[in-house]
Amino acid sequence: MTAFFALIKRDLRLAFREGGALGTALGFFVVVVALMPLGLGPDLKLLSRIASGVLWIALLLSALLSLGRMFETDYEDGSLDVLATGAVPLELVAAAKSIAHWLSTGIPLAVLAPILGILLNLDLAAFPMLVAAMLIGTPAVSFLGAVGAALTLKARRGGLLLALIVLPLYIPTLIFGISALSAALGPDAAGGSASSLMILTAISLVAAVLGPVAAAAALRIQLH
Amino acid sequence: MDLGPHAVFIWASYAAVTVTIGGLIAWIVYDGANQRAALAELEDRGVRRRGGKPTGTSL
Amino acid sequence: MQSWTQRLANPTRFMQVSGTLLPWVAAAAAALIAYGLYLVFFVAPPDYQQGETVKIMYIHVPSAWLALMTYGLIAISSFGLLVFRHPLADVSAKAAAPIGAAFTLLALITGSLWGKPMWGTYWVWDARLTSVLILFFLYLGLMALRSSLDDEGTAAKLTAVLALVGTAILPIIKFSVEWWNTLHQPSTNFTSTVDPSMRWPLLIMAVGFTLLFIAMHLAAMRNEVLRRRVKALRLQEAASRDGLPAHASAAE
Predict the structure, then answer these.
(1) C32: closest CA among C197, C206, C198?
(2) Per the CB < 8 Å rule, is C179 touching A176?
(3) Is there a contact between B3 and C55 if contact means CB atoms under 8 Å apart?
(4) pLDDT in tens, C70-121
(5) Contacts (Cβ under 8 Å, ≥6 apart) of B28
(6) How far is Cα C15 from Cα C19, in angstroms, rounded to an integer?
(7) What is the value of ipTM here, to two decimals?
(8) Is residue C80 within 8 Å of residue C5, measured between CB atoms?
(9) Per-domain residue ranges for chain C?
(10) First to last CA, chain C
(11) C neighbour chains, 3+ CB pairs within 8 Å
């Protein structure tokens, strides 16, 4: 278990030392959201209606940007081979890397989202729910993303392929992330949002089990 | 045959199925002919599988 | 005990058996589809609500069924490859993917052509159409992943992992799309119960399409077995004339 936490710490340290990855993801998030009003017109009513969808889709795309590097750098410098032969099972390695990705990308994006919500005239009453849904939903983004990152480790055109493979898997998270928000703005705010959040939690838990197992299987195929 | 006011949609659907499946079948047949030709050409040059039995003719 | 899958594990045996079966399956498919088309265009009555447009159903429903069935077949083949290392499992999965994608595309095209007279637009974000669209994306992902990997063995296993992940996620996607759909619009009640006079032609067409799929899948699998033989022979040839200028082995 200590090895597991050491792995998370190591990945986090690498992510923050590089710094560029997080900055790029956040910058991309801001730019995509800022482009929306420019493409759709500055109609505040329309913007507040579509804000939750725009924020979620922009978040998914931003998280996607940094997924490619999850295993790539370790594969290139050979440390992935060391990890594969080490005492920690590859499933746990994949889980640790997914958690590190969530901590270093998912949480910052979720925290930034309300600020962008202001740009889109999102109802202030929805802000707590926005952050809560994103914090609960983004683990699924990281865990399922790990599968895509592991599958495309050696592939040509890895980045584009990763998006094609992973985005359809994000559909449940997207749907329930948005439905939590629209329920929060509806008449039965507490009840509707709670059920959506429960389902989001379930999706993230399923992803947390499925993702590392599949990612480890994909890594083993390529490392031997 | 009178298919009513929406005949064009019915014909378009059947045409789409015909073209797609026809294309798929054509591609499979073409691909098969190519592989068989390649195999026959290799065997003509005396490249055989370790079993030694000619494979191209057993189709 | 030897199951039929184990007995077919030998590619040479598979080539023999499939070679005998293929013409029969293809002929049966052609006969059933021809009979089905005759029923559809000359016997089956127009629907009391939809009129003649219901004729699109006879190709839409079989296409949608094959879109799903093929993904199931790919999932089973992937399982067979990863767990039992069945030598033909990957041949089956690889051959099935483009055919399944084609039927998924057909289900989408015929569905939207059916939708235009029924709903007034070509595309409605109906739960079923949306799920089929997502299924199409999964097929595209499978084919793209395979085509972007150079080593055949690695490509086979990684594609199998992706297919199984897709199988695990697909029910969740289906559930969430249905939830999303009821949230945004009332159910379209598009395909209610099918009248018995239409059920029979539909069944004939469905069985005909399934046989057609089996024939195409068998033929594509045979092509794949041959392609691997050609590849192996070229490698063997290149290895045996090591040292000599290997111009012939490079010839495509």
Answers:
(1) C206
(2) yes
(3) yes
(4) 999 999 999 999 998 888 899 999 999 999 999 999 999 998 888 888 878 8
(5) C216, C219, C220, C223
(6) 6
(7) 0.89
(8) yes
(9) 21-185+196-230
(10) 43
(11) A, B
